[in-house]
Amino acid sequence: MDTSLYHDTFDLFCGYVKKKNAEILEIACGPGNVTRYLLNRRPDFKLLGTDLSPNMLELARINNPEAEFRLLDGRKISELDKKFDAILCGFGLPYLSKTESVALIGDAAQLLEPGGILYLSTMEDAYEKSGPVQSSYGDTCYQYYHQADYLSETLEKQGFKILHLIRKQYPANGGGTTTDLVVIARR
Question: What is the C-alpha R_g of the chain?
């Protein structure tokens, strides 16, 4: 649940959302740790959290009873039938391929109100390094790395203006560091 390394970026996101009672979409909300931070900072947010895992959604509901949650694959946000003032996808991209990430940005552009804010975070490295990784718990999953160049290009093609492109060094499993990339953009 510790998101303290990213609090400064969440604060930037919250600061750009000027509207009171703003409609916020959180993609890949997991157990609701980012949701909790956002709602502590901005209790007026009308937040809809989505995730592919029913277990994660149950934890998110326990951690954030004031928010709404829905089982939804981040690759299918175009199925939502409403507009949002801001969209946040905190570390959902490592589970999406380059093609899926580009599509998500396009879908987000369609779901955002004019002037809406988009927050994306991922691990930055050469896309070719994507592949199976083992967690500290012994689970294996496929992890995608993304690059700022094509994410920025895609955002600009979808009518976004990049407000912040932030890199943070984070300790990697098994030693060393990874570069986490946070992009905040306005539609």
Answer: 16
Q: How far apart are CA 84 and CA 108, in angstroms?
A: 9
Give the strands of the sheet with 161-171, arranged side by side: 68-71, 46-51, 23-27, 84-90, 112-124, 177-186, 161-171
DSSP assignment letter at 172: P
Return the CATH class of domain 4-123+147-171+179-186.
alpha beta
Residues 149 and 20: their CA atoms lie apart, in Å, by 33
Domain layout of the chain by residue ranges: 4-123+147-171+179-186
For residue range 119-165, list pLDDT tens digits in order. Answer: 999 999 999 999 998 876 788 989 999 999 999 999 999 999 999 99
Share the mean pLDDT of the chain. 95
146-156 per-position pLDDT tens digit: 999 999 999 99
The residues, ordered by sequence, that sit 6+ positions from 20 with a Cβ below 8 Å of its Cβ are 44
